[in-house]
Queue: 2 jobs
Job 1
Amino acid sequence: MATTTEQGLEVLLSRDQIATRVREMGEQITKDLKGEKLVMVGVLKGAAPFLADLARSVQVDATFDFVAVKSYAKGSRTSSGAVKLIKDLDEPIEGQNVLIVEDILDTGITLTYLRKIFLQHHPKTLRIAALLDKPSRRLEQIDADYVGFSIPNLFVIGYGMDFAERYRNLPDICLMPAEGA
Ligand code: PRP
């Protein structure tokens, strides 16, 4: 039987499952960095809890930066050009090891856009960590270097992910109930 939260939401990935997987991702990233420094770039807002936990799982000398994007393609799912940077990086990333931290890789439109503009700044390395991946939804050819969980096309909320800005603070990743349910 599926686990449910006190609010009656069905849990897809529990806080314990998330914590275990995030620790594993952190260990892998630590190994891959081979003692070098890291700039962790969170994509607001959904990536905030994941970045906070992942950052404490990597054992490297790390700094944080944040970007925010607005996706005009949401809903229409047509154009990869329909993404706008509404908050840029605070610090230059030239020559740095950069890790883009995302809660979810869906169509790939957002990360394709971010990867393109970040590469123009000539980082030493550019990698992507996505807690969730929905490969069946991909419109752009892009993969994350580190994926927490590959999931089917489900509407998920919690651990940073929202519905109309709500539910971001749920500790578990839950399924959004169908309207009227
Ligand atoms: C989500 C997620 C990614 C993007 C992925 O952000 O955090 O940034 O969508 O989708 P894509 O692969 O189809 O481009 P959202 O626009 O919901 O904003 P939020 O992080 O503020 O919730």
Job 2
Amino acid sequence: MPVIRVEPCTFALFGALGDLALRKLFPALYQLDRAGLLHEQTCVLAMARDELDAEGLQRQLRESLTRFVSAKEQDAAVMQRFIDRCTYVSMDFRKRDDYQALTSLVSAEQPLVAYFATPAAVYGDICRELAHLELVSNLRVVLEKPIGHSLESSQEVNDAVARYLPERAIYRIDHYLGKETVQNLIALRFANSLFENQWNSRYISHVEITVAEKVGIEGRWGYFDQAGQLRDMVQNHLLQLLCLTAMEPPSDLSADSIRDEKVKVLKALAPITPELLSTHVVRGQYAAGSIDGQPVPGYLEEENANVHSNTETFVSLRCEIRNWRWSGVPFYLRTGKRMQQKLSQIVIHFKESAHYIFAEEQRDQVSNKLIIRLQPDEGISLQVMTKEQGLDKGMHLRSGPLQLSFADTNNAARIPDAYERLLLEVMQGNQYLFVRKDEVQAAWRWCDQLLASWRQDGSAPKKYPAGSWGPVASIAMITRDGRSWYGDL
Ligand code: BG6
């Protein structure tokens, strides 16, 4: 039974004809409509620069919904109802006169949610114009990443928005926070005393966080080459996963209690100084290889590539959190493009018990692991040791999973896309799945020092063949500690 009360709002999508809007945001809004989670008075304003009439927008929406919503979830009546909610407004986001059209379309009676799927350089301009029209009192703005490419540039973006809006009206997206399993991390940790009591350096030996992608740069070479994998994936998604895994129990579930705890983790992350680069970091760049048996080009051979680029498409890190809970527990993070599998998971490795009584040759298999899988096959499994069955097996041990697959439980309820969850939360005015300004700053501060160490070091990223698990050095990094990446084939 739905436990959510939906309120009406005006949803204004700036950058409505861009890839993100067409691929993710309109399909997510459609899914909310299909689930009965858009109030009947909620309307969608689609804003972009192109000249487009009402029919043009309808055609465009129908095309993108047909393409990006799975066939079995396409419902002609809902699609029509959703399309009827949408109005196109052609505008240049920097031109004051173009905003006049909004005055008749935005109702003062209901909240205005403005989603900025635009370059960050115009966030401040849009806020200024909405303030000029006196539309900010009931306004929530959603900021897409990347918010800057360093601490300084992110502050400029944040300041430009803060000139017109208080922090409680600003929703910074990190779509990983909308993933079902990521939210489940909070439930898993704090609603199960079994885990919470063991969640510290006394019982946990180390933690792995892997976010591997099979895709390459997908026509985004220009953006990506300026960013690199550290800015594109670690500064936001991986550090958010690390924070949720490592944070102290919040005093309640309010947005600020959770975000207060996350920011403390970021502040406790030990900097990776130049002396630690050789043992704590591996930067990689994919070379030609094969994905699913098909040959794929290397990063430097992609369309529009600068063949001299030293940008990393892979990073693995050995991080340390300086607080009482995690002292001595390494957090190994890795993420890369063009890897063998699309896989995002967190693996918690528990320590062995102090006294061991089974066969010595099986000793290195004996450790419990909690695997929190974000994608694919969302679920949680706990690797436990049991006895192998059979009269002839003696006390031979085997490791097997206690498994909770989200697809198989919950009456096979559909797992929503991250953007559906996040759009719903912002429409309800809940900020707990959005990133606060001080979190963004702390994450950039940590990444900036690592980027500075890289600049000082100046060495080129290590090559890895597309379709592998990254450079050999990444395996060596964890092997040096007597460990291995969980599940690599
Ligand atoms: C985005 C990055 O934030 O996340 C992309 O900019 C990346 O480079 C994407 O491909 C991965 O998201 P997901 O949900 O597919 O794991």
